[in-house]
Amino acid sequence: MFSIKRRVEQLFLNDYTKAQKRHAEAEGSGAQEPTLCIPPQGNSTVTGVGVSTASDLGDARLPVVDYNNISQIPNILTKFPAIYLANHGLPPAPFEYARTLLTLPESAKAKLRDPKKSTVCGYNNAKASGREWWDYNPSQDILGPPNNEEFKEYTTKFFNKSIEILHNICRQFNLKEQLIPQEVFDEAGFSTMRYLRYSPDVIDEGTENETSGVAYNSVLNSRRDGDDGEALPHIEAHTDLDILTLITATEPSGLYVWNRRGQVVSAPPIDGTVLVMAGDLMPFFTSKPGMSPLEQHEGVEAIGEETVLPTAHTVVVPRNAGERYSVAVFLRPRRDMVLDKRVVARGGKEVNEETAFWWLATEKLHVEGRKCFLATAL
């Protein structure tokens, strides 16, 4: 039986095994390989209703979906790595609150760290990568600026409205059959909201640099003006350990996603929209009926055209572009929610095996950081 590390690798490699074969065939025939596709930068606007596109780049573009037409999202997410959601009703993104908190003196930010050293609660940083973040978890007291009730009130308001939107998207998957478990909707679970800052001011080149890998370097090199080795604020290619992610950001964007054909698509902020991406749990809910995406022999068959794959993405802030702030809301279930049930052979007997969310989260830590094999296979 495969180790969980190999199973997670297989989960992310399923679609790209086929993609690599197509790339090899294209190379043999002299066809042009996929290139980095960058939509026009700046503040685009959304016009009309329904579904439109964020750029005019053929297949390498992301759709814009009106919130009144969210019933289309399940089908769209099987074809595109992410969507822009318009007319969503969210209040303005709390970028100013993020800036206020993340530019506090180091001594003040140190007091916002979680006593248990959680990386998804309170303040954390990755100075080698030029980023720092602060997480709100509704199950705990806010580790935020002291005596700032406005900060707490707005943070909670934005989080609750975002979770409501993500829950509503999930309900669209259940219109025909129960794909996403009901307990996802019953409570906030382990959902969190993150204020994130990318800035050259955060970079400390004396700390260990966590980045490596073809996927990251291919994007990084495409954004460099030269090759003097200057560090840029970034995060490695990865997928989110959740069901869905809602994110909005300031310029400069620096956000890229991979589509199913191995193309890298820029995802700059668009006025009036938020970006919605799929997380690692979606293949569990949308794989072929009766099949597990973690099964050793059935894994490939379990991932079909109707399966929503996790969105592989990275952020690389262009040189001399200044700071980037983003607000991300991660929809997650309770830690003990069972994601997967299957019968496996163990000790000469067939036994029922269950995969809980906390177990998957723990095991993913052993898969070369947070890297997503969906991205690094390119």
Automatic annotation (TrEMBL):
Oxidoreductase is among the record's keywords: yes
Pfam families recorded: 2OG-FeII_Oxy
Family assignment from sequence similarity: Belongs to the iron/ascorbate-dependent oxidoreductase family.
Record GO terms (molecular function): metal ion binding; oxidoreductase activity
Region feature Disordered, mapped onto this chain: 23-42
Keyword entries, A-Z: Iron, Metal-binding, Oxidoreductase
InterPro entries attached to this UniProt entry: IPNS-like_FE2OG_OXY, IPNS-like_sf, Iron_ascorbate_oxido_reductase, Oxoglu/Fe-dep_dioxygenase_dom
Protein name: Fe2OG dioxygenase domain-containing protein
Record domain Fe2OG dioxygenase: where: 215-333
Domain of life: Eukaryota
UniProt signal peptide: none
Database matches in SUPFAM superfamilies: Clavaminate synthase-like (SSF51197)
